[in-house]
Amino acid sequence: MQTSEEIFLRKIGYSQVKIIKYLPSFTRQVSLCSTKKKRKEYVVVKYYKYNIRRILTDYMICGLSLAILRPIKAYASTTEKIRGAIMARDIFRKVGIKTPQLIYPIDIRQLSHVGHFIVEKYEDAIPLTQFVLTAKNKELTDIGYIIGVKTASLHKLGYAFGDNRASNTLIKIEEDKIHFIKVDHEYFCWDPTKVFQILDIILITQYPGIPELFVYGFFKGYNDSNGFKELGVNPKYFERASYLFGDLLVLPLHFIKRFE
Ligand SMILES: Nc1ncnc2c1ncn2[C@@H]1O[C@H](COP(=O)(O)OP(=O)(O)O)[C@@H](O)[C@H]1O
Ligand SMILES: [Mg+2]
Hints:
alpha+beta, 5-stranded antiparallel β-sheet, 3-stranded antiparallel β-sheet, 9 helices, 10 strands, binds magnesium ion
């Protein structure tokens, strides 16, 4: 029997579709597929299939955004979420944050027809959660620094990643240079109240398994780019407070990590 992903990829002009594997996902069904258009290609299909975890997450975030973060509209419907995820790419381009090439939908107007799939190019890179397991000390501080600098540039424009867990940051080493690629822009938002910007920092630095050296690099990069000044907080107090938040979030984060 054909899966929904296979049927959808055929519909948008791909042939020889084969699901190679499902990638770890907490709320969606994410699959790596081999396909052919003009030539052989590897694509990632993100299917907004409803499951209990998705519904619970949506309710939680929806409640939060309605209650205190009214400018965030990305949680209204699947189509709106995908629209937000596409908008995120344009903003990321402005501050030099890489994302996988989008294959479908490129045109936001296409969304009125099919609103349940995102297709993007597969990136041969590893999630930050795995990268930190084998990285050298210098690599950890370097990549932490770069991510800190870029996060500050995004925050300065008034936006936040939203779901800034380490698994949504992929690391790619090319010609001895370390790059990072951001995936999963579902909860990307405009954040004038800076609540999600603070959450961005807590999530990336306090995620289970993230080493001190990465955190050191991140805070240095964020601070050097005047990120804390823009946030209006003292970096020393903030670092301490973020560990406290990390302790509070440790249970839910360990729970989510089990699915990654
Ligand atoms: N374009 C891509 N190339 C390579 N790996 C990807 C790509 N997109 C997602 N992944 C991998 O699949 C996982 C799940 O995808 P993600 O978009 O984060 O879905 P979810 O919303 O469920 O977290 C990511 O953690 C990442 O490791
Ligand atoms: Mg993710």
